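Dear support,

We are seeing what looks like truncated structure output for some complexes. This example has two components. We would appreciate it if you could run it in full and send us the complete C-alpha cell output so we can diff it against ours.
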Amino acid sequence: MREIQAQQITDVVEKLCIEANYYLPKDVQEGICACRKCEDWDIAKGVLDQIIENYEIAERESVPICQDTGMACVFLEIGQDVHIVGGDLREAVDEGVRRGYTNGYLRKSVVADPVRRGNTGDNTPAMLYTEIVPGDQIKVTVGPKGFGSENMSAIRMFKPSAGLQGIKDFILETVETAGPNPCPPMVIGVGIGGTFDKAALLAKKALMRPVDSENPDPFYADLEKEMLEKVNQLGIGPQGFGGKTTAIGLNIETLPTHIAGMPCAININCHVTRHKTEVL
Amino acid sequence: MEKHITLPLTEELAKSLKAGDTVYLTGTIYTSRDAGHKRMCEALARGEELPFNPQDATIYYVGPTPAKPGQVIGSAGPTTSGRMDAYAPTMMSVGARGMIGKGARLPEVVDAMKKYNGVYFGAIGGAGALLAKCIKKCELIAFEDLGAEALRELYVEEMPLVVIIDSEGNNLYEDGKAAYLKQIGK
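Here is the complete output from our reference environment:
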C-alpha cells in the first residue's frame, strides 16, 4: 500500500487549474494552426489569426486564455494500492480548486444552486470523477469547462434501428444547431453506448483525449474522420462567420450497451479546449 | 469594409455600419451580463434611472477574470449574447444602441434593432487575453456584489470587432455561411 497525502492532491489540483487556463495544450494549438493553413475564406483566416495571437499572449503573459475559466472538471484515476491519508479526498480536491481559482486570478463562475443561483465565490465544488484502476499511483486530470459550449451539448436515447445513420445525423444536427454560439472552431466529443449517464461521461472524456489522436477501433477511427470532414462542410466557420474551419477535432468513445438501446451524447467544446494531467 | 469608429454610437454612425464590416472601435462602453441586465430592466420597470446614461451607449456582454496586479482588467472576451435577448429590446427602447457579444440573436431582438437603429457587434469568443489589450480603463460603477457580472465602465481603443447584425437586419451568420457554401458549390 502506497500512501499519498491529501495535501499533495490539493497542490497538484491548484497547479493544474492554473496551468490549464493559461497554456493551451500543444495538440489543440497544432490543430488550430493546421486548420489555418487549409482555410481559404478571408474572414475565417482573420479570425483564426486572432485566435492564435490570443493563446500566444496568454502563454507569454501567464493570463487566462478565455475569461470563462470554466467549471473545474477533475478526473482522478486512483490506483487500488493507494491509501490517501491526512484528509478528506473531496475536500482536498475542492481546496485545490479554491486556491487555483483565487491565486491564479481565474473567474469564479459557479453558483451554489441551479435554480436559486448565488455564486459560491471560489469556483467550488469541482465536478469530480473518480475511477479505481490497478496500480499505486493517482492520475489527476483537470479540464476547465466553459459553458458557452456546454450549453450547446445534447443527448439522445436512440432506438437500435436508428443505426449508424441516426448517430451521424444527430452529430450534424447538434453542430448545426450550435452554430456560432459555442465559439467555433469547436472540438466535438461523442459518447455512444452505456447508459444515459455513462454516454454523457464518455462524451466529456472524449474531449480530454488529444485532438490528433484516434479511437483504437478502426471502425470508430474512420467514423471520427468522416464526421469531422462532414462537420467542416457545414460552412459555419470560425465564430460562425462562414468558412471551412467549423471543428478542429472530433473524438468518439464507446461502451457496450443494452439490447434495447443506443444512447448517444455529444459534448461540445470551443477552440479553448483545456486539459492538463499529472501523475502522483 | 474596414472601419475605425469612435463612440458614442449615434443613429447616423449606426446606419453607416453594415453586416460583415470589420470595425476597430474606440470610446467608452459598459459591461453587463445576465444578472446586471435583469437588475437594469427591473429598475426601468420601476421608473428608476440606469447607473449610466443609455443614450447612444454600447454594452459589452462580458464577465472578465480578476485583474492581476498591474493589469487594467483580466481576460475579457464576449459571452453568449442569446442570454440577454430577453432584455435587449428594453435596453434599446431607452437608447442603448450597440451590443458586443457572440452568438445568435432572436428575431425580436433583430426587430428592435431595426426599430431603434441598433447594431450587434461580434468580438472573437474565447479571445479574452487579446481583447483585454484594447481595454485602457476600467471602473466599477454598479452592482459590485455581482462580482464578475458587476457593471463596469470601460475605455477601449481600436477594439477589433465584426458587425454581425446591422440596423437593417442583415445577418453575417446567415450571409457569411451562405456565401461560403455557394463558393464551394454546395
